[in-house]
Amino acid sequence: MSAEVLETREVLLSSSGVTAEDVIAVARHDAKVTISQEALETVAKVRAHIDKLAHSDVPAYGISTGFGALANRHIPMDMRTQLQKSLIRSHAAGMGPAVEREVVRALMFLRAKTLASGRTGIRPVVVQTMVDVLNAGITPVVREFGSLGCSGDLAPLSHCALVLMGEGEATGPDGTVFGPSGRPVSELLAQAGIEPVLLAEKEGLALINGTDGMLGMLLMAIADLRELLATADITAALSVEGLLGTDQVFLPELHAALRPHPGQAASADNMLRVLSGSAIVASHRVGDSRVQDAYSLRCAPQVAGAARDTVEYAYLVATRELAATIDNPVVLPDGRVSSNGNFHGAPVAYVLDFLAIVAADVASIAERRTDRMLDPARSQGLPAFLAGDPGVDSGLMIAQYTQAGLVSDSKRLAVPASVDSIPSSAMQEDHVSMGWHAARKLRQSVQNLRRVLAVELVAAARAIDMRAPLQPGPAGAAVLAVLRGSVDGPGADRFLSPELQEADRLVGSGAIRAAAESAVGPLN
User: Which Gene3D superfamilies does the annotation name (predicted)?
Assistant: First the structure.
């Protein structure tokens, strides 16, 4: 879906939930959110159970008791509003740099989705205020550290809840920061016509007890990886052309029938189509003494295909979590208020870590193809480092260093966060998922992969140019035309960083995929 469509789209919050596309639309494209009347009525009806329980003698966690290890303390009626305020203020204890705006918007939207489900026991005004803050373009400042991925993303969500109360720290639509060191957040809300919320029983807990941050980052990572894996097939195919590799290993009869992993067949099909009509590939079909290409070329569909299948498994987990109602305690359909452990982030944390492995390995094989193009001993006649005048010029020598550094960083980020657990809350919360940390490192790994593919793109394009007068296939020619619009071809050494940054922009914008598809139709 195009950004233009997403920007004007309205997303409806109902008790039946939302889609992954809704999350992306709100997080990245500021789609407006509305709450269905049915959802507001359900929320109000369920709230009646909480009001009844709040006025009874039965102790209820988060309603008439303290939290965590303090859950055994009974809180009198006249202190319960203060209980909710204290919960949010104390839990908004994050530190470090502010996380990205899109992460905060995804976090808030997913929490609003759960609040609108009618299973949390909040009043309609609470979910409506959260939606109003989103629609006003107000973004709470959420810090990098504070969530352990269990009992929900407590600190990140608390920073958001604090803004609903007219406190904390937030940025306005124009990027102006409101908070302790400047104008108060209550003034920012007032500018948007939003009244701060005075939290009642259970509402503070309902605002912060979810896996929304890690889920939001998972959904965005999946969307990014789907695009990058298609681009990885394109850059791999261009490297095959540049290295005078064969396209015969990508024939369909070698994949779906012999090894029926759907991702592998999809990647092989992409590469075969990108290479179709290539005069470079055709030039060495006869008389070439090489029997087989190196693994980084020949096995590209196996690696990228396995990555595709892993992403789709992660999407299955993400959609299940998207259909969940995460809170503790939760209001069941029969009115019972029951404690549970659904806030534990393990299901999400595991696939976040899994995807970091995927991103690192696809980056790794791309770097190996780049290195092969720069080495005259393995590049089938290309000049050293694809330099204009090797020795005088260094060509792309250090671009590969940058690529190697990115791959090394991604390998470090592939170490799972979810195998760690540090007990908290006086041993009441004695096993946690670290899902937030898995999500944060995955975002960096996805960014690294994009940059690695950008370097491969620049190298493959140079290699193809150096095969002139032989020409690439229509897809390769279309990709080179887009790249050459802002990144020059082979020649004397020049300031390289801006060119690599521009290639990164083209990869990230989808321009490279769109160029290839303009020649061969939609890619998998």
Answer: Fumarase/aspartase (Central domain), Fumarase/aspartase (N-terminal domain)
Q: What is the pLDDT of residue 379?
A: 97
Planar angle of CA 299, 476, 377, nearest 5 degrees: 55
Which one, of 229, 279, 232, 235, lies nearest residue 459 by Cα? Answer: 235
Q: What tens digit of pLDDT does each residue of 102-123 get?
A: 999 999 999 999 999 999 999 9
The dihedrals phi and psi of 33, each to the nearest 5 degrees, come to: -115, 135
Q: How many CA atoms lie within 13 A of 209 on its CB side?
A: 27
Residue 265 has pLDDT above 80, yes or no: yes
| Mean pLDDT, all residues of the chain | 93
CB 95 within 8 A of CB 144: yes
Tokens 């694809």 locate to 386
Contact 353, 416 (CB under 8 A): yes
> Distance (Å, rounded) from C-alpha 417 to C-alpha 235?
30
- Would residue 295 show up in a list of annotated catalytic residues for this protein? no
Q: What is the pLDDT of residue 68?
A: 64
> Quick check: 6 pLDDT over 50?
no
Residue 314 has pLDDT above 50, yes or no: yes
How far is Cα 438 from Cα 443, in angstroms, rounded to an integer? 9
92 & 14 share domain: yes
Shared domain for 300 and 328, answered yes or no, is: yes
Query: Whole-angstrom Cα distance, residue 297 to residue 244?
Result: 10
Query: Band of the pLDDT at 288, cuts 50, 70, 90?
Result: confident
Which three-class secondary structure string do you get for 154-191?
A: HHHHHHHHHHHCCCCCEECCCCCEECCCCCCHHHHHHH
Find, among 279, 271, 232, 228, the residue nearest to 252 by Cα. Answer: 271
Coil/strand/helix, residue 403: helix
Q: φ and ψ at 98, to 5 degrees?
A: -70, 140
Domain that residue 79 falls in? 3-210
Domains in the chain, number: 2
Exposed/middle/buried for residue 180 (C-beta within 10 Å: 0-12, 13-18, 19+): exposed
What string of H, E and C letters represents the secondary structure of 116-153? CCCCCCCCHHHHHHHHHHHHCCCEECCEEECCCCCCCC
- Do 159 and 265 reside in the same domain of the chain? no
Rounded to 5 degrees, φ, ψ at 195 are -90, 130
Three-state helix/strand/coil letters over 24-77: HHHHHHCCEEEECHHHHHHHHHHHHHHHHHHCCCCCCCCCCECCHHHCCCECCH
Residues 6+ positions from 315 with CB-CB distance below 8 Å: 20, 222
Q: Which of 61, 295, 315, 350 is catalytic?
A: 61
Higher pLDDT, 95 or 63: 95
Query: Is 166 in contact with 116 (CB distance < 8 Å)?
Result: no
Q: Which two tokens stand for residue 124?
A: 């309609």
Instruction: Indicate whether 225 and 206 sit together in one domain.
Output: no
Claim to verify: residue 154 and residue 276 sit in the same structural domain: no
